[in-house]
Design goal:
Elements lengths: L5 H14 L11 E6 L3 E6 L5 H12 L6 E2 L2 E3 L3 E4 L33 E4 L12 E4 L12 E7 L1 H7 L15 E8 L45
Antiparallel strand pairs: 1-2, 1-9, 2-8, 3-9, 4-5, 5-7, 6-7, 6-8
């Protein structure tokens, strides 16, 4: 795990301060590129709206924290969830240490369509760690409950394919959906410069059936249901 000692956490706080100082050498990370068993996708970070949350994902990616982890929960027409190094839905912590990443919720960012990226939590305020989710269609009931910090800028087709994989009764993929690597960039990753960006994707009510009751539950780390916060 990262940031497990006081000195580590002080260093991470100092790194955060340096990384969010807008100079040529320490400008914020703006994108995180994921290479997965399904394909490549990229998250554009909303670092002006959620600077600490964006830094958290980017710094964890920079440290290799997400490498060889899985998307452990996939709910068709709802979302995909990953970022837990244990693969159980109960693990993971922020770059700042356990319980050190507060919510950054703004009414300017909402779950308006597919490709919204936000933090999973334990159902309690300020309980963010390393787990995140990506929406597959609008999920307005999650507004104000989770820190939105980015969107899929490239590779939405990859996300949609992930959302179609076969799962068991607990929404776990029958075949692993693996993150091979995740790396942060300042600016669009060079390998993506020749590719068209992902456009805004919204689901039309006329083209989608209503979400089932199992899909409308909030996003949470699985340990919340076991009264064992991450």
């Amino acid at each position: 795990m990262v940031a497990t000692t006081t000195s580590d956490r002080i260093q991470n706080e100092n790194d955060y301060s340096a990384a969010t100082t807008t100079t040529a050498d320490t400008s914020p990370w703006t994108h995180v590129l994921f290479e997965t068993s399904t394909g490549i996708f990229c998250i554009e970070l909303y670092y002006k709206h959620a600077p600490r949350t964006c830094y958290n994902l980017a710094a964890l990616a920079h440290a290799g924290y997400y490498d060889s982890t899985m998307f452990h929960r996939i709910v068709r027409d709802f979302m995909i969830q990953g970022g837990d190094p244990t693969g159980t839905g109960r693990g993971g912590e922020s770059i700042f240490g356990k319980g050190k990443l507060e919510d950054e919720i703004t009414r300017n960012l909402k779950h308006t369509g597919a490709g919204v990226v936000a933090m999973a939590n334990s159902g309690q305020p300020n309980s963010n760690g390393s787990q995140f989710y990506i929406t597959l269609q609008p999920t307005p009931w999650l507004d104000g409950k989770h820190s939105i910090f980015g969107r899929i800028s490239h590779g939405m087709g990859v996300i949609q394919r992930m959302g179609m994989v076969a799962t068991d009764a607990n929404d776990r993929p029958l075949q692993p959906v693996t993150i091979h690597s995740a790396r942060p960039f300042r600016g669009v990753p060079p390998s993506l410069l020749q590719l068209p960006p992902t456009g805004a994707i919204r689901s039309s009510a006329s083209n989608n059936t209503a979400l089932s009751s199992s899909n409308t539950k909030r996003i949470a780390n699985e340990d919340d249901e076991n009264d064992n916060e991450e």
